[in-house]
Amino acid sequence: MPHPLSYYFRIKHENVVGLEDFYESRTHYYLVMQLVSGGELFDRILDKGVYTERDASMVIKQVLQAVSYLHENSIVHRDLKPENLLYYNTDENSKIMVSDFGLSKTLEHGVMSTACGTPGYVAPEVLAQKPYSKAVDCWSIGVITYILLCGYPPFFEDNETRLFSKIMRAEYAFHSPFWDNISEPAKDFIRNMMEKNPKKRFLTEQALRHPWIAGNAANGIDIYQSVCEQMERNFAKSKWKQAFNAASVVHHMKKLQLSHSESSPLPLSMPHILAQSSTQNDIEMLGRCHGEADGLDPNGNPIHAASLLSCSNSESGGGVCHSEPGNTLTDDEKRQVTNFQSETATPFRPSKR
């Protein structure tokens, strides 16, 4: 039988963190990973001072190249998210490195079925607990792209059942004023990556040919202030919430599994749960952007008195809100969403300026 880490030693790509060596005990594997010292993606953005669509496009292009390589080698990452995108070193033009292959899997017959990932980044077919393919990684890249261009997640709800229902319907929007200065090619790229139907969703090869990635369609307008404000409010605090809720998450998941086992003979598939502790860097993130706040939003975020969220219109007059009207969940899908709940999915809302 092949060693469970054998496929990892085959990974050799300039944008993928490599496995240098490993040691095995009776109960554990100890992995020696390639050293990357440039820090996390969000920290670098917050430190830049100037940030444009072109910066986001260059990041996503490197991620696509890395994931395309993995897919060519029949490896699906299954947990792509901003925290797993690191800079190789501290140089200003450092390359991006895709890390953390704890949930990755080699493709068998082209499909997988284990429900795993990080809430907020998982594809609709995973939440529906259906067999899925490498297209789940492309959905996650679409979610990351959305966040890089506005600073908040595409799906936000106070209630987890509604949150997962929105993901399963691919119900998201490009809100004004946060998306007013974002180009139409960027929005088109996101629509193709976050396509509900995995058979219609862009694969990495198609994504790499899109004008926003391969051409000059990404605009150079500075969006640093808006993106920075949203990132610091939504993502720095999410780490504190995850750390605070770590014990209750485990307890909650155990209760769900117990209640399901008592009512049904079928095993319950649950998403991979990840709790992160806050650091001094997270606290320092709150001081990097400036602006007077006018109270708190429903999530406890400082808000600025400005226009209410709405869906912006494209130059042609058509709305740029994206959803699947009339595509309501079936009773069976609703039950699947209810069974998939997790307290790690922090309800996000873009803060009003």
TrEMBL record:
This is Calcium/calmodulin-dependent protein kinase IGa. InterPro entries: Kinase-like_dom_sf, Prot_kinase_dom, Ser/Thr_kinase_AS. Residues 1-213 form the Protein kinase domain. Keywords: ATP-binding, Kinase, Nucleotide-binding, Serine/threonine-protein kinase, Transferase. One of its GO terms (molecular function) is ATP binding. SUPFAM superfamilies: Protein kinase-like (PK-like). The gene is camk1ga. It comes from the Eukaryota. Residues 316-353 are annotated as: Disordered. The keyword ATP-binding applies. Transmembrane segments: none annotated. Pfam families: Pkinase.
